[in-house]
Amino acid sequence: MSQDDVPASLQTAADADRPRGILTPSDRDFLLGRKTDYTDHSKKQKRNRIRRRVRNAVLDFSILFEYLEERDRQTVFDPDDDERDAYTQGITDMLAFLHLGTMGYHTPFKDMLSEGVGQAEQRLAGSNYRMVNVEFNVEPVGQIDVDEVVEKLENEEFAQLTDEELRAFVRLLTMSEEFSPESAREQIKDRVDEYTNQVNESADARDGNLEELTN
């Protein structure tokens, strides 16, 4: 796989000149298929070494959380502007990897996520008395009543649309042969200023009415 064959979201991650992270440049070439002259035995060894490094990287996060200085942590999560999108994608994929990897693990992902967020909040507060509720639910988007959704849209009953209906409707819309992302982008851009003005007018009217009520 050449750099041109790599998805746009992975261009930075797959850069052949990027320094070593958990994966070495050789590991990346192996996983991306850029280097294929491996024997069955060497492939097995390569996969084994990658697994060991990933496992040890997981353990390293306990040390990083406890002992990496705050200024260093902040620097890690302050990428250059031209790398911000790739970094955000990396964090997203890291969470996806953890969620997928812990399927069937003896401690549910949501329990570890809740405990981890709780530890971070206590670190921020500098006190073990800081306690928070962390909710994490995975609910699949089911079948929706398209006619009902369209009726809500026609009647501008936007507040009545559920997140499930919105996600499913957008997915169905993109599957339509008549849908064109480029055309939709241009039409939406043409409406952005109008929408923004209406939102601002609504906010101003709300503030004005509130001021009258409180004076």
Structural category is mainly alpha
**Strand-residue fraction?**
under 5%
Query: How many H/I helices?
Result: 8
Q: Segments where pLDDT lies below 50 for 5+ residues?
A: none
Secondary-structure element pattern, one letter each: HHHHHHHH
Round the mean pLDDT to the nearest integer and report it.
Answer: 90
Overall geometry comes to: extended
* Fraction of residues in H or I helices: 55-70%
For the biggest sheet, the summary is:
none
How far the N terminus sits from the C terminus, by CA atoms, comes to: 68 Å
Rg, nearest Å: 24 Å
Say how many strands there are: 0
Task: Sum up the structure in keywords.
8 helices; mainly alpha; 215 residues; DUF8102; Domain of unknown function domain-containing protein
